């Protein structure tokens, strides 16, 4: 068994997203859209490449099927990821929400 670890957020993560985005052949997709979402994509996928590939591929397929030909928030949100990524994402969202509710000094 080969153990994998999460890809760290940073230059290489951004480069990976850019390479995947360059491979998209969606007629209405604007270059750089996914790269701008690097932090969201890392948080959503917990830095796992397989989860990232599933998210982008699923959103692209949905964009073709619904005729929008672009990856939107709705298409991204419609893609279910693996249990580990979804569970970690829920924990991160809960933590972020609790920080938003904290009183400011």
Q: What's the short version?
A:
With 105 residues, this protein is mainly alpha-helical. 59% of the residues lie in helices and 0% in strands.
Care to describe what's here?
The chain has five helices and no strands. Helix 2 crosses helix 3. Residues 94-105 have low confidence and may be disordered. It has helices at 11-23, 38-45, 49-65, 73-77, 83-101. The protein has 105 residues and is an all-alpha fold. The termini are far apart.
Provide key terms for this protein.
mainly alpha, 105 residues, disordered C terminus, 5 helices, single chain, 0% strand, 59% helix
Sheet with most strands: none
Give the terminus-to-terminus CA distance. Answer: 49 Å
| Count of β-strands | 0
The succession of helices and strands, N to C, reads HHHHH
Oligomeric state, counting identical vs distinct chains: single chain
**Rg to the nearest angstrom?**
15 Å
Q: Average pLDDT value?
A: 85
Structural class computed from helices and strand pairing: mainly alpha
What portion of residues belong to β-strands?
A: under 5%
Helix content: 55-70%
Number of helices: 5
Which stretches are low in confidence, meaning pLDDT under 50 for 5 or more residues running? 94-105
Looking at the structure, what is the overall shape? Answer: globular
């Amino acid at each position: 068994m080969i153990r994998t670890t999460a890809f760290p957020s940073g230059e290489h993560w951004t480069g990976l997203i850019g390479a995947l985005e360059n491979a998209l052949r969606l007629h209405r997709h604007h270059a750089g859209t996914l790269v701008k979402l690097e932090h969201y994509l890392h948080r959503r996928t917990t830095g796992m490449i397989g989860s990232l590939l599933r998210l982008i591929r699923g959103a692209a397929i949905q964009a073709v099927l619904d005729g929008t030909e672009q990856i939107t928030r709705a298409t991204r949100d419609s893609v279910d990821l693996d249990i580990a990524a979804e569970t970690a994402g829920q924990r991160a969202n809960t933590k972020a929400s609790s920080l938003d509710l904290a009183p400011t000094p």
